[in-house]
Amino acid sequence: MGDKPRGISRGLTSYGDAGFSLYLRKAFIKAMGYSDDALDRPIVGIANTFSGYNACHRTAPELVEAIKRGVMLQGGLPIEFPTISMHESFSFPTSMFLRNLMAMDTEEMIRAQPMDSVVMIGGCDKTVPAQLMAAASANLPAVSVVTGPMMTGSHRGDRLGACTDCRRYWGMHRAGEIDAVEIDEVGGKLAPTAGTCMVMGTASTMACMTEALGMMMPGGAAIPAVAADRLRHAEAAGARAVAMGKGGPTPQQIMTPEAFANAFRVLLAIGGSTNGLIHMTAVAGRLGIQVDLEALDRMGQETPVLVDLKPSGQHYMEDLQKAGGLVTVLRELRPLLHLDCMTVTGRTLGEEIDAAPPPWDQDVVRPFDNPLYPQGGIAVLRGNLAPDGAIVKQSAASEHLMDHTGKAVVFEDQEDLANRIDDPDLDVGPEDILVMKNAGPKGAPGMPESGYLPIPKKLATAGVKDMIRMSDARMSGTAFGSIVLHITPESAAGGPLALVQNGDQIKLDVPNRRLDLLVDDAEMERRRAAWTPPPPHEGSDRGYLKLYLDHVQQAGEGVDFDFLAKPPDGRKTPV
Ligand code: FES
Description:
Blueprint: H1 18-29, H2 36-39, E1 43-48, H3 60-73, E2 77-82, H4 95-112, E3 117-122, H5 127-138, E4 142-146, E5 153-155, E6 158-160, H6 164-174, H7 180-187, H8 202-213, H9 228-247, H10 251-254, H11 257-269, H12 275-285, E7 290-291, H13 293-301, H14 317-322, H15 326-333, H16 349-355, E8 378-383, E9 386-393, E10 403-411, H17 414-420, E11 433-436, H18 457-460, E12 468-471, E13 483-485, E14 505-509, E15 514-517, H19 521-530, H20 543-551, E16 572-573
Parallel strand pairs: 1-2, 1-3, 3-4, 7-16, 10-11, 11-12, 12-13
Antiparallel strand pairs: 5-6, 8-9, 9-13, 10-14, 14-15
Helix pairs in contact: 3-9, 4-5, 5-12, 6-7, 8-11, 11-12
This protein binds FE2/S2 (inorganic) cluster.
């Protein structure tokens, strides 16, 4: 034990008398039944995100037990504590609005309570990034454990998974191909077990990126939620956290620009969710590290999509696990990775790849020279419609639409879209471009996953499966289509998106990474002079909504709050 307070003596409550503070703390915690021997041990905090509203975290209690077992086997004292938990479908107006609140809660609880290290149980989309943001700022040794993906379901012989197949079946229902009875039947089978969405959506993407980043014990990204291996993984994390409490490494020693580069490399190679970019931008921003979008785009051009998982491919996360898990991807990417990056194990990423079991024949992770898609999933666009950038997930888009000029069909916001998209009189054709405004960080608010604009019903029933859609919103990682997202600056902040009018021509040129509104500068200036911001959101004069609107940044800063991010220190990623 060094000079710094450890275990129960850390971070004493201020009563003006340190001896009394410790005496009182011990007196109160004795009511939990701990012995003096237990209270002398290193303490591993366990951030427990169980919630009756969060089915993705249904197994959190058994993970807590497994982590505790690991801690105690190594002579530590595990103490669990609750934090905010969020499920995508139970977070009004959108979970992204609450991610920063969860990050603040987690950071402050790690800081406020005595613990030498922490194991954080995440899983559903925003929970893992919130916890990584917290760990980056608190800088206490931390290990991420995810709840793990669901197993797949089946409907009349068709394999199903949340929620790529939710969208596929809902699209069939909208097109009149299946009736109300059948869509209800499907609804009972899309999420058949505990766990996170089992396609390469945001939860799976963040799990894979976190393992590549070095903040998770090796092999943890793809183990199904209901597998016994998931509990053994949790136990190992608990055991490791005891040693980390004494000697690190700390999150700031692990999360370097090189480590983020590894995470972005994996994001591209797995055809991961576009949300992975925003979330890791926020995590890096907590450490003063900026994401260089042009470097990311270059990385994308030399990184093929290797993982054949929905929505870009055909398999599910349980298949990736059977194929060997994320290390099967890391092995293919080995020449492109920074192998000397430190991980939570105290060994480097390269050492962990070498220590993994040897590969075997499988068809989920393609070899580097026979990829699923020749370039990384995400392309970064610039142009007069997106001066600070926009993105398109090429691997989930229609190739013939990646160089296309079309007429804008504009919706002012999500409500306008909902009201008019299925209007039989809507003037829209399959070659047109659907544009939605006011769905960015400030506009919606919360930058919801509403970028997956539905195909207008009259086109869907005529057989149109895809068309170009664009907005300042995000999109669920489980979605697919020719969809431009994160247009920055956003419409509500006066970005050029706010100036698009019905009938304008828009040119999307993905090969040249351009997104342009074909309207001359004089007309743009005239429109800008006439533009007024949208009216304030109801309730925006108080509470968290006020805090959020006053401080939220744009997509390029990860949609973090300005007062939580660290001023850039000149370090950039990917490197
Ligand atoms: Fe939780 Fe998809 S809803 S991971």
